[in-house]
Every structure is written in structure tokens, then in C-alpha cells.
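Quick check before the chapter quiz. The format below is the same one you will see on the exam, so make sure you can read both the input and the output lines.
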Amino acid sequence: MLRHIVMKAVFVLLSLTSSEAMPPEESVQYAQPAYAKWGRLAMEEASKAYPDASIADYKYEGRTMLEGGQAEERFVLWLRRVSGEFGIRVSIKVESDTDRLVQVRIKELEPNN
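Here is the expected output.
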């Protein structure tokens, strides 16, 4: 009798931990980094400035706080053309409080010799 009760308890516990009780993988949400929206903008602006190049790589360099309640998000993108590859730095200045775009600057990086 006791064995029968233990078996039922084990069965109930196992059924509670089955995959059906777990949320489906599609419903799991992954958090995006805070800079994701500015990274998308950096890639869009690079594509506009260099329409004959494709983006080969991307790196977030970080956020720097500036005077006057502004911040600068910096990205390095590695672009590829038929004639070769080169790097650019995209600096995006935003208002810290409102997250409003102030300015976008693009500068080609010097090749390492």
C-alpha cells in the first residue's frame, strides 16, 4: 500500500516537471542590450554613406557621458567593397534623459600599417 502511494507521488512530481509544464521556447523573450537601437542606426547610416559596401563586422565601443546631459554611443564597423576592406567609426550623440538623437558622425579609420 505504501509502495503504491509513493509511486503515485513520484508520478505526480514527474508530470509537474515535464516539458508540457515548461513554456514553449517561442514565448521566451531575450533582452536586447540598451545600445541595440543605436547599433541599428549606425548600420543604417553606414549603408547610406557607403552604398557600394557591405557590413562585414560590428563592434560596440561603449557609451561616454558628455556635458549638457548628452551621451555618445560609439561603434566600429568593418566594411567590405570590391576594392578591399576598411573600418569606420560611427559616433551617435543623444540626449541622456530623453534618448533623443542629436547627431551622427562617421569617420573612416586609418589602416594599420
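If your answer matched, good. The chain has one domain: 34-113.
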